[in-house]
Amino acid sequence: MTTPTPATPTPTPTQHSPAIVAKGLRKAYGDKTVLDGIDLAVPAGTVFSLLGPNGAGKTTAVKILSTLITADAGELHVGGHDLATDPHAVRAAIGVTGQFSAVDGLITGEENMLLMADLNHLPKREGRRVAAELLERFDLVEAAKKPVSTYSGGMKRRLDIAMTLVGDPRIIFLDEPTTGLDPRSRHNMWGIIRELVSDGVTVFLTTQYLEEADELADRIAVLNDGRIAAEGSADELKRLVPGGHVRLRFADPVAYQSAAVALREVTRDDESLSLSIASDGSQRELRAILDWLDSAGIEADELTVHTPDLDDVFFALTSGTDRPKTNRPKTNQANQTKETVR
After folding, report:
1. Is residue 11, in this structure, part of any structural domain at all?
2. Domain range holding 142?
3. Are residues 248 and 196 in the same domain?
4. Are 221 and 318 a contacting pair, CB within 8 Å?
5. Residue 42 and residue 107 in one domain
6. Can you tell me the distance from the alpha carbon of 73 to that of 27, in angstroms, rounded to the nearest whole number?
7. φ/ψ of residue 22, rounded to 5
8. pLDDT of residue 14
9. How many CB atoms lie within 10 A of CB 8?
10. Same domain assignment for residues 227 and 211
11. Domain end (from 191, 221, 237)
12. pLDDT digits 0-9 by tens, 132-144
């Protein structure tokens, strides 16, 4: 009698393998192409942020990858499962929180959690345990017995994500999770997202807030006209945009004049005794400037690196379309890092 060979289980994404892979993802509605052959690879246990102007296709990408709608073309894998052949396995591996809260305002927070536990087919006792743990984790214990209609916007979003976690998904899609929240609630939500990632969860984030992507994302892709205009870490994307410079400030007028004469391509500010040198802010360029100061025997009192921020990147890559929202004032000295040179 021949012993049957056991089936090889689908591999679970590890910290070193992609949790989400899209190759040639396409989606059109009639004559309107929303996603035009995009490629994405999201490493497990990281935050990946998709930026783009309104109507760029961010939500469409989330809906496709979370099996809510189907793609027109593309090879798509989520959690090691093929979306085309095994969508049920994908749904079992993911959690989704959309732009608008999905909680039921007519029942209590606890009842919302228990309803989600039932939908995940958890035994009653297990469902109550998970609900209680998540309500405590998201600081909702005191409000658990109150109708959700009495919750603040931040509380509703925390409950929304808590409900998403009932099934213990290892991949979570957050589609503009902080839209409409006040700054304090937004920062609280950032802390929750960081905790999820520290537990090994992969987060696919779309957002209208550029500083949110800057704060949270390990990698960022900018979507424009249905295509990926650029992808990389926040620092890598900032270096794509011209305008970065290093500013040298001097307390000694003689040292300032010596540096201004020796350096050819600089912008002078005689009033503040400072020089600006075009730079991408890379470690190599900073080391070259420091080495030059040492070799010339010139002492600068302050070296400041000025790099473009994601607002500049977004505007440059999306052909002047409307920018996502930003909560911080726009200045000419974004993302400053100061180092005194002695």
Report:
1. no
2. 18-237
3. no
4. no
5. yes
6. 7
7. -130, 130
8. 57
9. 6
10. yes
11. 237
12. 999 998 999 999 9
Best CA proximity match to 222, nearest among 213, 18, 306, 201? 213
Number of domains the chain contains: 2
pLDDT digits (tens, 9 = 90+) for 31-56: 999 999 999 999 999 999 999 888 88
- Residue 113 shares a structural domain with residue 154: yes
330 lies in some domain: yes
What is the β-pairing status of strands 94-97 and 171-175?
parallel
> Considering the domain boundaries, does residue 333 fall inside one?
yes
pLDDT at 340 exceeding the cut of 50: no
State the residue for tokens 């102007």.
53
Tell how far CA 163 is from the center of its chain: 21
Tens of pLDDT, residues 226-277: 999 999 999 888 888 777 788 899 999 999 988 888 776 788 899 899 998 8
How many CA within 13 A on the CB side of residue 159? 33
- pLDDT band with cut points at 50, 70 and 90 for residue 5: very low
Q: How far apart are CA 123 and CA 319, in angstroms?
A: 53
pLDDT at 334 over 50: no
Q: What angle do CA 323, 64, 190 make, to 5 degrees?
A: 50
Asked whether residue 45 falls in the same domain as residue 156, the answer is yes
Taken in order 224, 230, 232, 237, the sign of the CA dihedral is negative
Same domain, 137 and 251: no
Last residue of a domain, one of 211, 237, 263: 237
Query: Do both 47 and 195 map to the same domain?
Result: yes
Q: What digits encode the pLDDT tens for the residues 14-26?
A: 555 799 999 999 9
Rounded Cα gap, residues 48 and 95, in angstroms: 15
The answer to whether residue 191 sits within a structural domain is: yes
